[in-house]
Amino acid sequence: MSVAASIGSDAAVARRPIPVRVLWVLAGCAALVALAVVSVSFGMRTVSPDDILAGITGHDATLAQAAVLKRVPRTVLAILVGAALAMSGTAMQAVTRNPIADPGILGVTGGASLAVVTGLAFFGLTGAWGQIAMAVVGAAIAAVFVYAVGSLGRGGATPLKLTLAGAATSAAFVSLISAVMLPRVDLLQAWQAWQIGGVGGADWAKIGVLAPVLGIGALLLLACARGMNSLALGDELAAGLGENVFRTRLISALGAVLLAGAATAIAGPIGFVGLVIPHLCRMLVGTDHRWLLPLSAMTGAVLLLAADVVGRVVAAEEELQVGIVTAVIGAPFFIWIVRRQKVREL
Description:
With 346 residues, this protein is an all-alpha fold. The chain is 76% helix and 0% strand. The longest helix has 34 residues, at 63-96. The radius of gyration is 20 Å and the shape is globular.
């Protein structure tokens, strides 16, 4: 079975009943709300419902209320980052027709990380705006480079070639990041905490900068949702149906890069969310991106919130960063996808 067929087409998803999709979207909303409540409730300090209400409304008269007040921006950041990474992964899989595409696997996250580290070490860019700008530029350069390398040779950009190009590029980025940061002892500790990936350093200032960028990226992808359905049929057939293949692929890639780059700049490189969530959501609502993208956003937010809560509860004294938890979940899933899809040269 071809990669395009594994992702699907409009004709296939049209037969899936709309009420089923609506139910899954509503279930995703309910799960997100429930986990948001859990996220502000659990941590090193136990809080009561009264403390939660007081903390949400801005009161910090007690330690419990202050804990809730600190957890609220952390919860919001986890929602935004999880949604962004999941939508980015969904779009990358559609644009490349590669079922194992993901911001981390294709080197996009690595490019964003290298750019942030470069800005921090050589230009002193510690503000959110500067880091996001550097991350988006780095992510875009990495995406173009990986796609160009993966397109070389017979057959063009096949899933295996893209994956290998992304893995090699990511490894090179890791080496370059280490080379940049190891001499900078003053920045090394902060960088080590950031590179794991987490939402513990959330505050409203960062969220205020991040949210508009993610909003633009999400709108670009939603505007191209129908075009992504056409891309799954192949470039020639999509063009024959009247789709501007180049424009759809360019805008979708731009939206995916904005989401992945901005999320990485603020939360660090968090892997596997963009890989796991699209496959799960396709099982639930089919491959129509008009439904798949919104549900992926909600499910990605749920996954990252759950990972953050698990990290706080399992290791209450030190707490596990969400990047570690998502890697534990995502690595076996990645192996399963590779075995299931039997990725090979086409």
